[in-house]
Amino acid sequence: MRVKPQLIYQRERNYQTSLGYIIRIKIKLQKLPNIQKKEFPQDYKFSWIAYSLENTNERVLFDNHYGKAPHFHVDNDKGTYFI
Questions:
Q1: Adjacent-strand bridge partners of 16
Q2: CA atoms 32, 35, 36, 37: torsion sign
Q3: Rounded distance, CA 17 to CA 59, Å?
Q4: pLDDT digits (tens, 9 = 90+) for 19-77
Q5: Which residues, 6 or more positions from 2, have their beta carbon under 8 angstroms from its beta carbon?
Q6: Rounded Cα distance, 71 and 66, in Å
Q7: What is the pTM of this model?
Q8: Are 81 and 62 in contact (CB under 8 A)?
């Protein structure tokens, strides 16, 4: 039986930059049930994304998931940058 992760924090909000651009930031943090894998530091799974509402291809994504430790992507770059 698979136990669901506990949602710790979730937020989605628009912001206006000093140059007048509107960006959206989405944040999600979950606590996994005693998973003990390197890709989930202290058993946390997270996702942070910031993107332009005018052009959603302009974005930065920082996350972790099964098989990948914390890493980030910039724009539509298929490459992954490990931290």
A1: 22
A2: negative
A3: 14
A4: 999 999 999 999 998 877 777 878 889 999 999 999 988 999 998 888 888 888 888 77
A5: none
A6: 12
A7: 0.78
A8: no
